[in-house]
Structures are given as C-alpha cells and as structure tokens.
Amino acid sequence: MSYTRLIAGVLAGGLLAAACGTAESPGSGSSTGGGSALPLQLVADLDPADAGAVGSSVNQFGFDLLGQLAEDGENTVTSPVSAAALLAMVLAGAGGQTADEMAAVLHLDDSRDVRVGALLRELADTDDVTLSVANALWARDGYPFEENYLAFARDSFGATIDDADLGSQETADEIDAWVRDQTEDRIDGIAEDLGLPSGDAVLVLLNAVYFLGTWTTQFDPADTRDEPFLLADGSTADVPLMHSTDVSVPVVQRDGYQMARLPYGEDERYAMEILLPDHGADLPQLLASLDAAEWAAAVGALQERHVSELALPRFELEWKADLNESLRALGMESAFGGGDFTPMSPENPFLETVVQKTYIRVDEAGTEAAAVTGGMMAQSAGNSFRVDRPFAFTISDSRTGTILFLGTVTDPRG
C-alpha cells in the first residue's frame, strides 16, 4: 500500500468555572451580547518582524512546556501553537497579577496581543499543505461576560461563540462533534476530559489545529522493514524503519546533537526537524539544552548534504495531558484560583482545567497528528542518518519560524 500524505492534528481545551459563591443569573442577559454582537474584524497581516517575534514567543513557551511534560521513557506530543492560542484567549480576560503571570509564561508583552491571532491566520495561509486552525467558545447562557472580551475573541482569534447549557449532555456532545469535525475524526472525547457536563462551568474554550502534508521526497513502502530501535531503558524492539538512499538532506551538527530537516510539499515551507542526540548523549540531556534560540540557530545553520541512507521510524501515537500542574510550575499560579478575571466577567471566574490531546501518524507519505518523528545518526551527517533510538522532533513553518508540533519519541510502538 502506498502512502502519500503527512497529517497532524492537535486540540487544546480550557474550562473556566464560576468563583465560589456565584451562581447563574438568568436575568443578566445573553452571555454573547445577543443582537449587539460586533462584526468580525480581523487585524492586518503580520509583517515579518512581528511574525518572527511572536513565533519565537510561541516556540519558547513550547520548549518550557515540553520540559515539564516530557517523562523518561515516554512519548510526548504537544503543540505550542495550539496551547498558546488557547491560553492567549484566556489571557485576554485576565487582569492584574494574573495577567502578568500568564503573559510571562507565554512570553508575551500584552494581555491582548493581536499578533497571536494574526499568526494563526498566517500559518494557515498556504496551498502547499492543508493546515486549519479553529477557535471556539461555549459560554454559559445568562452568565454576564464583558462584551469587549467576547469581541476580542471573535475579532482577533476568529472564534465562534455560542450560548449553551454547559450542564447538559447535549452541549457536551456538540463540543465533541465540533472537535471531530475540526480534526478529521482524529481526536474525540474532549468534553469528558474537561469534566463536562458540569453545573459549575461558565466558559469552555477550544483550539484545534489540523495539518495534512506530503513529504517532498517520499519513502518507498517497499523499502520499509523491521529493524531494532534502542529504547530508553537500554533494550531494543523491532519497529518498521522507512528508508531512502542517496538523498540530499539539510543537516547540521550542534553541541550534543544533530538536526535534519525533512520538508513537505513543493514549496517546502513546512518541514519536520529531527533532533538526534549524539552517541554517548541521551534525550534528557538534549531537552535540557534546548530553547527557542538554540532551535532557531540550528535551523539557520542547516546545509544541504548528500546522505547515503536515511532511516526513519513509521509510527502512530495518541497523547493526552492535563496541563494544569505544568502551567503552575512555569509560573501561572493565580489563574487556577484566587486570580483576576474581571476583564472577562464581573463575576470573576477561574481557570479550572487546561487539557491538550494530540494524534500523530508518520508513514512513507508523511505524518498524521500532533507529533513528529526524529532519530539517531549512526555516522557523520554526510554518510547516513539512522533514526533508531529516542529522539526529539518539531514540525515548523519556515516563513514565520513558528513550531506547530513539538515532542519526543522514545518508543515508536506507542
């Protein structure tokens, strides 16, 4: 069977609950402003300088988050863009110390940074791959939200906003259906992960990213064969390794690791970067040395080299994480209780849950989901590049320098 595509999808979800002692106020008016809703007015396109700056902020947040999420011996698949977009929509409703903490974790200067929404549209502006980004809010019917907050979510992020009974199974089913539609049925069950239906929930925010691409140079399925992959515990397992021979690949040797770039489509705007620890090094050491500046420096130093053999695992992974504790560890403390969300609502709700779910499939044609493959090089970059031990990966956009997906693969079997 011949495969011809790379697909990636990810979902980030957040749920805000009523503060202690508050209750639904049926007479307070429509949460979305009813007929007074403002028309959608998207901000202008990003100039290259702004795109690079906000992309770097997203990337650094991604590496910070990966440092909290990655566990020895476990696969990790996260999307900095999806998580940052979701949290930026929450940040737009924060004030005081809560806003300061959230902005610092996201590496943003402004609690209502219009560049984030503009970046999402810039990323999706491509015909070479399929990349869709969608945002949606479900607001408790009758709960008093500030109209200027909802207008910002609509206008800057293009978010749809629906009044809903968040305590009903019908709404939970509607949310799950939206997710399935946005991720081509790759991700499901987010409502249950967020604790829905819930009588305490006042706002559900979702961001979904779906990526479908084809390798610029595809692997021949006839050349895929089972070979040993070194696992984190030192044992080996046979996994399907895809092979290409005598190919030109952008590669670079850095301190402790090598990077290779495998592009998608004719324009090669989007690509997967494989970060392979040197012999004698391991994945935790690599992750400890990575940040947005080092990643960007490595990408900028890539040079085309002839590779006699390129070997990459074929794999399919699903991943889910509750991000609350990781975000707290990064400094986002007050948002989860006792914080200031009065710019969102005079009732001052709090952030109860942030969840991310991802799916990824990497095959001879490309990748599907929210993760990437990477690997290990057995010899120098000019000879072969064999991905046969734990590695890190990114999927990124060369135009803005933004990382869409970021993760680690310690066991391609899942």
UniProtKB/TrEMBL annotation:
Single GO term (MF): serine-type endopeptidase inhibitor activity
Coiled coil ranges: none
Domain of life: Bacteria
Keyword Signal: yes
Keyword Signal: yes
Location of the Serpin domain: 63-412
A Pfam family annotated for this UniProt entry: Serpin
Keywords: Signal
GO cellular component: extracellular space
SUPFAM superfamilies: Serpins
InterPro entries found in the cross-reference section: Serpin_dom (IPR023796), Serpin_fam (IPR000215), Serpin_sf (IPR036186), Serpin_sf_1 (IPR042178), Serpin_sf_2 (IPR042185)
Region forming the signal peptide: 1-23
PANTHER family hit by this protein: GH10112P-RELATED (PTHR11461:SF211), SERINE PROTEASE INHIBITOR, SERPIN (PTHR11461)
Family from the record: Belongs to the serpin family.
Protein name from the UniProt record: Serpin B
